[in-house]
Amino acid sequence: MPSSDIVARSSRFFPDQNVMTLHFDILTIFPAVFPGLLEESILGRARRAGLYDVHFTDIRDFARDAHRSVDDRPYGGGPGMVFKPEPVFEAVESVLATPRASEEATQKIILTPQGRRLEQRDLRRLSSAEWIILLCGHYEGFDERILEGLGFEAVSIGDYVLSGGEVPAMVLLDGIVRLLPGAVGHPESTTYESFETRTLDFPQYTRPPEYRGMKVPEVLLSGNHAEIARWREREALRTTREFRSDLLTGSEGSRGQDDSWEAGN
Ligand code: ADE
Predict the structure, then answer these.
(1) Ligand 1 neighbour 168 (Cβ under 6 A)
(2) Which residue of 55, 130, 171, 251 lies most exposed, with the fewest beta carbons within 10 A?
(3) Do 179 and 190 touch, CB atoms closer than 8 A?
């Protein structure tokens, strides 16, 4: 492919609507589980506005036998099946053969519970990419040569095991798209929310002022913005201390405060 073609494809500028488009490629054996998510709410509006697009590759299309099998028994024995290297490598290579952005603007991620745990700051960093490739696993995991040979960043969405990488891919997609400029009505609503500030959100209320005997705190009805800001700060700290004290001490799990994974670097 001529380099001018690559440059043209790499642009996130959408000439008709004057917006940038972030391209996603999702490699999966279950592409049919995604469409509903992409139609509704913020993800639906942002996609229709051209802020992002998604291309799916069915890894089974790269299977070599009549049963379209992409998994096999693990060497050494044990329960479950493992993703075979051949269809996964070939599916990835088919996606990489038509680049949608420059190498530097591309993030290649494999979803697996064996990866680094995803945090809000990772989503913020990923939201400035131009092309994000998400590889979803299934079964008991990937043949290790897939992790070793493809050079993708292994990312986990949390310390629990799901049946596959599709829901984790949706989590990434949703978390990234809502940070794109223009995706949510009030950009500040993504800047001051939980985890951006390393505290949980303060409690929110709307009308009516009293419901089933439960009252909205007086200060929120007072119109005193300085008092309201102080109350919110205190409450955010209180809930964080109660439910996620690790966020305040930076002692959470395997990741310290400055320990961010740098996909692609
Ligand atoms: N696949 C299965 N469980 C997962 C997790 N927690 N994170 C990412 N991918 C997964």
Answers:
(1) yes
(2) 251
(3) yes
Nearest CA to ligand 1 atom 4: 113
Amino acid identity for residue 217 in this structure: P
- In the structure encoding, which two tokens stand for residue 132, read together? 């994000």
Tokens 């009516």 locate to: 208
Q: Which CATH class is domain 3-177?
A: alpha beta
Task: State whether residue 142 is helix, strand or coil.
Answer: strand
Same fold across 3-177 and 192-249: no
Mutate to test the pocket of ligand 1, among 26, 136, 156, 163 (most ligand atoms within 8 A of CB): 156
| Average of per-residue pLDDT across 215-221 | 98
How is residue 131 written in tokens? Answer: 């092309």
Query: Is the pTM for the entire model greater than 0.85?
Result: yes
At 16, the pLDDT band (50, 70, 90 cuts) reads low
